[in-house]
Amino acid sequence: METGAAGQAGGGGPAAAAAAAGEYWSEALKSFLDHIPVSSVNGAIQPSPSPGKHRFLDSYTRRPGPGGALIRFWSRVRAAALEIRLDGSVPDAIDSMYRSGVAGAVIVDDVRTSFGKFVDRDIGFVEFPSLVLWAIEEFDKLGSGAGDKNSDFLTSLKQHPQIAETKIAWLAKSFLWEPFFPVRSHDTLFHAMLLFSKHRRINVVPVVELMNSSVIGFVTQNAVMELLLSSSGLEWLDKIADKQLSEFRFANTTKPVSVYSDQTLADALHILSKEKIGVAVVDRKTSCLIGSIQCSDLYQLLDDSSLFRNRKTLSAEEFVKLKSKDEDISTENSSASGGQNVLSLRTGQRITAGLPVTNRKSDTLKQAMEKLTASRSRCSFIVDEHGRVEGVVTARDIISVFSPPCMDSRIDGGTFFSAALAQTGCRVEHGQMIQNS
């Protein structure tokens, strides 16, 4: 069965010609993406302080334990990745990621080989925001009087066994882990994009040297968009990227979640724990967007514990204003370039301090990509001419546009497609990509 443009251009009038042309551009784009190695993506290979060796955090950071004795951190950095042990506690994992300044970590389990030695097995990926939001939800279930009002965020969590003794392993039951689908540096960009577009819970794809080997870097959604933007000007890429947002289904169907500016920070965090994209903060009288609260803002609850303690009285608008002051402090880390960790906990200054990323439906997909990559944000709110929120576009929405759902049955792709499709839970039949039931 042939599904290529050449097989359909023989008749059918303008509609058939347009369909054939569209398939041609889709195939051209797919072919291009399938020739770009993952190693070309910014952050896919990150420098290690001691290549080929483990660098243990306890070599640098020790904390006083019972009786004044020093205890060791249970997590460590191996190559470019922070590792969290399966039997570690949630508060310690939050602490480790916060101290290391990373927004995510690899979950490892020690297994014994047939030679009697222990080797590391990477089994998952966990994000800092997921743990923080889970901990806050659990803390609030304990009642409004729970915790010492003078305690910081982590100390408050550790005062309650229900939270302090919860192990990372247990959180797998709540789906707080992200699936661990690594790629190798010589795999292609299309491979990573398929993983992003077909697994809604994947925001980061680890890169390994060889299967079952150390994580040497990460592919993020924003890094993928940066690489796509570097090809701006190529006709078959611009055929998609120069379309207005109004032409895409997600711009008309994806509804943003929001809170009124006078609602509390606690209200916004509760919604964020369910949605994980971003919460629009709108003025109750005008319905205009005045700010947003996103997962990337949560480190501030550890920077300033008063935000956590006052979350039930602090308004969403007040938090937005405090956040904008923090973003004004420095622009040094506003970009992931120059060797900065692409999983940096602090994403840097927004395009316009204090305001969320926004687009109009008349903007092009390329303009949305440029704003998202510049801000390192995962979503842009679509607003009308009065500033009222109409929709939202996410980094995953954009990547999915460049990941064609249909393939020519004559294109096999060898081990690339077999590996990529197996991990995305799909197969190809007669040129169509079908999701396994």
Q: What is the terminal separation in angstroms?
A: 24 Å
Q: What is the makeup of the main sheet?
A: 5 strands, mixed
Number of strands: 18
Top CATH class: Alpha Beta
Strand order of the largest sheet: 1-4-5-6-7
Topology:
Layout: H1 13-33, E1 54-56, E2 62-64, E3 70-72, E4 76-78, E5 81-85, H2 90-100, E6 104-112, E7 118-127, H3 128-141, H4 153-158, H5 161-164, E8 183-184, H6 189-198, E9 204-208, E10 215-220, H7 221-229, H8 235-241, H9 249-253, E11 257-260, H10 265-275, E12 279-282, E13 289-293, H11 300-303, H12 305-309, H13 316-327, E14 358-359, H14 365-375, E15 379-383, E16 389-394, H15 395-401, H16 415-424, E17 426-429, E18 432-435
Parallel strand pairs: 5-6, 8-9, 11-12, 14-15
Antiparallel strand pairs: 1-4, 2-3, 4-5, 6-7, 9-10, 12-13, 15-16, 17-18
Helix pairs in contact: 2-3, 3-10, 6-15, 6-16, 7-14, 7-15
Task: Summarize this structure briefly.
The chain has 437 residues and is α/β, with parallel strands linked by helices. The chain has helices spanning 13-33, 90-100, 128-141, 153-158, 161-164, 189-198, 221-229, 235-241, 249-253, 265-275, 300-303, 305-309, 316-327, 365-375, 395-401, 415-424; strands spanning 54-56, 62-64, 70-72, 76-78, 81-85, 104-112, 118-127, 183-184, 204-208, 215-220, 257-260, 279-282, 289-293, 358-359, 379-383, 389-394, 426-429, 432-435. It is built from 16 helices and 18 strands.
